[in-house]
Amino acid sequence: MMQNDVESDLGWALRRISTAFRTSADDAVGVIPGHGRGYLVLLAIDGGAEPSQAEIAHLLRLTRTMTTYLLDDLEQHGLVQRRASTQDRRVRHVLPTRKGRALLRTTRAALRETEERLFSPLTGEESETLRALLARVAAHTSSGGD
């Protein structure tokens, strides 16, 4: 089959890949309050660093207000807890609960299956290279949101 201009367009390819990923990933993250954003919060706080609400907002490129509402929802569902900083009482650090960690583990496993299906035309090395390149480009974008 001959590749036409549309099929070689970067925007077309990114849109098509994004749509395929989101369609499958929505099932996995749909059980988390805030869906994809809630998943990213759980992922961001899983490493033990105890980021502040402001740091999470900055990392995920969300407004502080949106982050507060998202964390309220995650906290109401028992997935995160917030603690006041010992250095500055105005700062709230966010930590995952056991329930939050367990949900993150199952969600990550489901998302790995989605990624494996999506990257099935690639070798393992090609898949890792693509992930690394996409992460590098994403880190240098200036605007967040979807």
Automatic annotation (TrEMBL):
<dbReference type="InterPro" id="IPR039422">
    <property type="entry name" value="MarR/SlyA-like"/>
</dbReference>
<dbReference type="Pfam" id="PF01047">
    <property type="entry name" value="MarR"/>
</dbReference>
<protein>
    <submittedName>
        <fullName>MarR family transcriptional regulator</fullName>
    </submittedName>
</protein>
<dbReference type="InterPro" id="IPR036388">
    <property type="entry name" value="WH-like_DNA-bd_sf"/>
</dbReference>
<dbReference type="InterPro" id="IPR000835">
    <property type="entry name" value="HTH_MarR-typ"/>
</dbReference>
<dbReference type="GO" id="GO:0006950">
    <property type="term" value="P:response to stress"/>
</dbReference>
<dbReference type="InterPro" id="IPR036390">
    <property type="entry name" value="WH_DNA-bd_sf"/>
</dbReference>
<feature type="domain" description="HTH marR-type">
    <location>
        <begin position="7"/>
        <end position="139"/>
    </location>
</feature>
<dbReference type="GO" id="GO:0003700">
    <property type="term" value="F:DNA-binding transcription factor activity"/>
</dbReference>
